[in-house]
Design a protein that fits this description.
single chain, 12 helices, disordered N terminus
Amino acid sequence: MQQSSSSSLPSVSYVMPVLNEADYLASAVNAVLAQRYPAATELILALAHSTDGTAEIAEALAAADPRVRIVANPARDISAGLNTAIAAAIHPVIVRVDAHSELSDNYTETAVRSLLSSGAANVGGIMQARGKTPVQRVIAACYNSPAGLGGGAYHGAEKAHPADSAYLGVFWRDAWQLVGGFDETVRRGEDWEFNLRIRLAGKTVWFNPDLRVFYSPRSSFAALAKQFFATGVWRAMLVKRHPKLHPLRYFVPGLLVLFLALTALVIALTAIPALTPVLVWVSVPALLICLLYFAALTLTACRLPGLSLRERLLAPFSFLTMHTAWGLGFLRGFCFGTGDTVDRSRLSV
């Protein structure tokens, strides 16, 4: 992976924010180091204070390969870690990597050639979730379904095209400098906000379906709920900051939560005799809509590929967790702001 005199491709710096990733860090780093790329590379780990042995694993990886360097990320947040790592980078192309992910074979060269041929400032591809345990496999299948995360291009579009954002992203360091780096006040959704400023600067963000990153989602429904709640909170902040630049689908989970809550309230109030004759006309159709929603989740779960019968039975609960946690977070962020909300799914302190 050292510089080849005959190579016309630019050198690359991989950057990876890391926090409590003992179970995944070695695999993520090894997938990076295994990339066959005909120019110089380095990998910078922005290491936040971890409590699960991640620091020791990171130090061992850095000691074993001179291409791996560690920089401290005392702020813990992804945006701050990315900025710190990129500031320390020495190469013109930045490849963002998540510690919960593994790059597919030839990812780097395909991405850089796409960056050059498209003239874009940032290029991204498909996020393909996959799991090891039964619950994680269920969550991964729901991630990969349009019913789980919606219709973003990076969940399965088939044609290359200009995009609003890029999953992780391979971008020019100059583009990062042009827009002032990642906004460290944005603690979730920093990628969308970063790519928005790239587009507002007149540059292109490009989607290439030939790029694929394998992502390991959270391994429990409790962790999934924490992650999606935080994501919903910060998405609401971005919607409020840029109201004309978000599709209506971002409002759907919040409206779903409101509808479910109001339906439960109306059904409860029908127990009051004086209100029963009036509310029954509202509660019955509302309950039918709820039943249709749950039926749709169940039908979608039955059609998810690669799951056992037991896992399919868990899938509706996974969808429901995604939708309601995200919706609750969105309502919280929209009505009350972000406060100190962070993704606590990987925090043990």
